[in-house]
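pinging the channel bc i need a second pair of eyes. not urgent but kinda urgent?? the chain im working w is below, pasted from the shared doc
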Amino acid sequence: MSKNIVILNGSPHKNGNTAALCDAFAEGAKAAGHNVARFDLQGMNIHGCLGCVKGGKDPKSPCVQKDDMALIYPAYQAADIVVLASPMYYWGFSSQLKAAFDRLFAVAELDAEYRNPIKDCVLLMAAEGDSADNWKPVLDYYHALVSQLGWHDVGSALAGGLFLSGDIRKGDGHPALKQARDLGVSLR
């Protein structure tokens, strides 16, 4: 059965390492018959969450702030799978991804008990470091986030050992590109 997938790409680099992971994942997901909507957050006008708890009144426009999140909300609401894609910045997500993700709370405000819609989730991440200690803080956060939301982690592709934008494509390409594509193909 075809799934609706939304990719939130938090990389500031249009053709960088994280973007390449997104490309590979989307290629695999589309090959498997899934629908993919991708948002490259760096090029969008998205403001940080105000914490005002005044959203949730209009399902078509759940947040009181009117910016490019209006493009993301319908895709997110229709999505079966949310892909969080980011370079690792100080052992966490980029500010671009964090800002957009925080703003998804407006959708939870549509529910009287502030429940988030249940989704499957994928993590795509590129990083300079490639040791278990390097990945641990961000993976701990990711798994805690998914657990607290009641979501289901369906996999990740982690590309370590990358420093410069585009390093992932050097030589025969980083093994995480195949892992991302295979992950996209494997979704059921």
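so The mean pLDDT is 96. and The beta strands are 4-9, 35-40, 81-87, 120-126, 152-159. — does that match what u expected or am i reading it wrong
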